[in-house]
Amino acid sequence: MATPKKDVSQPTFSWEGKDKSGKMVRGEMRAAAAGLVRTTLRRQGILVSKVSKQSLHGRGRVTDKDVTMFTRQMATMLKSGVPLLQAFDIVSKGASNAAVSKLLSDIKTDVETGSALNQAFRKYPLHFDTLYCNLVEAGEQAGILDQLLDRLATYKEKTQAIIAKIKSALFYPISVLVVAFIVTAVIMIFVVPQFKKVFTSFGADLPGPTLVVMAISDYFVEYWYIVFGAIFGGVYAFFYFWKRSEKMQIFMDRLALRLPIFGEVIRKATIARWTRTLSTMFAAGVPLVEALDSVGGASGNYIYREATKQIKAEISTGSSLTVSMQNTNIFPNMAIQMISIGEESGQIDSMSAKVADFYEAEVDEAVNRLSSLMEPMIMVVLGVLIGGIIIAMYLPIFKLGAVV
Q: Rounded CA gap, 322 and 336, in Å?
């Protein structure tokens, strides 16, 4: 008689209690509700003292880096001949993050109860996107899951490397500007008022720059909570609406590509992700029209996502990929020519990968140039800001010295 399958969509509950001998025991159980857990355990002779629904949020957070590492480990073990379920068991037990271990354990349970691997992944869209699941499905159908996982791991590693480069280019100037603001606020609130007391005793007219700095200091001292509240509140509101407002996201995606210095770097990074995704999907045997759905979403930019929809529509009506890309007017000539060669030779995947390699190298070089350029620019800004305040406060002293 066949054993009925568990409903793997049910939540998991952790429980504690005492068995018939009075020994404290604990464990986990899938059920529709906590009451069913208590009933089942009572039938087993366990006196339940506590039942709580498990949540991944309480066990840490599964990051994209964790998913990438898991994908690389799975690809390596499957290539070495380790069975799928055993590979899941090894990776989940070796994970240092409890949330990752729980996630992999749940996926393994889904696969054990008859679900396809891609279907098990699709139950966790926050961690495994459509691109990931489609490639796993293609690998399962073609019997080359180890190769597809290897491609996925490489894709995610390279994508994360680009994002890390962009973040590193932005982090340094932002952090320095934040520190500069804090130092300036401290000077305005605590240092300048002390100078003001000394200058008041002079009984003489003060220079214009000194009066301006003192006026700003007075405002900081009296309304410091408004200044800090407006800045931190504005930053919080900005990121809040950026995450939740589609109009805000569209505006920021457009703005990012038009920034004077960083815009070109972001554009190259977007093209690298676009072509890398196209290469990965096409190499997996996914039809071009279907692949473009994932390509547009993986680009991470609204402009390129909409352009990809236009490309898909034109290809569906018989146009070539090269001509469709030209019609969008957002792809550089070099990328279009390389894709054209790949289209003519039937090697779109390899040529797309070469385009991605080229633009990833361009991003690396651009970030290195930006880092070298930013340091002197930031030093000039800090010198003018802090130095200007100091000079303004010492001008009356210089004036007094000249009179004496």
A: 6
Sheet with 47-53: list strands edge to edge: 24-30, 12-18, 47-53
User: How far is residue 192's CA from residue 17's CA, in Å, rounded to a whole number?
Assistant: 65
Distance CA 302, CA 254 (A): 7
* Distance (Å, whole) CA 156 – CA 159: 5
Radius of gyration of the chain (CA): 30
Cross-strand pairs, 244: none
Share of the chain above pLDDT 70, in %: 93
Under 8 Å between Cβ of 382 and 180: yes
Distance from C-alpha of 283 to C-alpha of 272, rounded to nearest angstrom: 16
Residue 404: what pLDDT? 46
- Interval 84-142: pLDDT, tens: 989 988 888 887 788 888 888 889 888 988 889 999 998 888 888 888 888 888 888 88
Average pLDDT of span 275-301: 84
CA distance 292 to 386: 51
pTM value is 0.68
**In the predicted model, what is the mean pLDDT of the chain?**
83
Return the pLDDT at 333: 93
As a whole number of angstroms, the distance between CA 366 and CA 354 comes to 18
Question: Do residues 209 and 395 lie in contact, with contact meaning Cβ atoms separated by under 8 Å?
Answer: yes
Alpha carbons 370 and 138: distance in angstroms, whole number: 40
- Cα 362 to Cα 344: distance, rounded to the nearest angstrom: 26
Q: How far is residue 135's CA from residue 142's CA, in Å, rounded to a whole number?
A: 11
